[in-house]
Design goal:
- The chain is an alpha+beta fold and 206 residues long.
- It has one domain: Transferase(Phosphotransferase), domain 1.
- The relative contact order is 0.14.
């Protein structure tokens, strides 16, 4: 991740030191900032305009990881830092990450939080970098727009029946979420296709 060009949307590791029983990491410290989870919980419901700014950066951060051969494997609002006044984003905490393996990962290697587990992990006992990232980004956008998770247990994840709490969501936003949270992993968009979705071109009239 330190190889040029670095991403402005990913936390930077400046230096590291090895000790007999631990490592010391010298990390970038963006300040002032707060987690995206706190931003969602401590502010009025998010507009699609704000969500669009945040989501584009989150997708670009994930895209940068994949291009550098890294699978973050733990994307959720607590692992995203946000500068409240500029909406600049930093993806943090690579402690659950893996080097990219396009053949996939055994279910025992999933270390992300339960609310972001993709259905294929339960169905096939295996998961894949890009498809898992896309699923997590869909859950992330749903949470930003509805202030709650889309699924609450394993059965709901496996059914992937998305029901929206926010009645004011645009059709474009709903469509992007539904595409990312498609149960069939082969039907999900790739990361580049997310950025090309019509929702990112929408002009809010409110």
């Amino acid at each position: 991740m330190k190889e040029e060009p670095v991403s402005p949307h990913s936390i930077q590791l400046y230096e590291w030191f090895e000790h007999p029983r631990k490592f010391t990491l010298i990390m970038e410290f963006p300040d002032p900032c707060e987690s995206l989870l706190d931003f969602i919980n401590n502010n009025p419901p998010m507009s699609e305009t704000t969500a669009r700014v945040i989501m584009r950066q989150a997708v670009q951060a994930v895209q940068h990881c994949v291009e550098h051969g890294v699978f973050h494997n733990d994307i959720h609002p607590e692992n995203i830092l946000l500068r409240k006044h500029t909406l600049e984003l930093k993806l943090i905490d690579f402690g659950c990450g893996h080097l990219l393996d396009r053949t996939g990962y055994n279910c025992t290697k999933y270390r992300g939080i339960n609310g972001y587990i993709p259905p294929e992990l339960f169905i096939y006992g295996k998961f894949y970098c890009v498809q898992t990232n896309v699923w997590a980004l869909g859950v992330l956008l749903y949470e930003m727009m509805n202030r709650c998770p889309p699924f609450r247990d394993r059965n709901q994840v496996m059914e992937a029946d998305v029901r929206f709490v926010n009645p004011d969501l645009s059709e474009e936003c709903r469509d992007l979420i539904l595409q990312c949270l498609t149960r069939d992993l082969s039907e999900r968009p790739v990361i580049e296709e997310i950025l090309q979705h019509d929702w990112f071109e929408t002009v809010d009239l409110k």
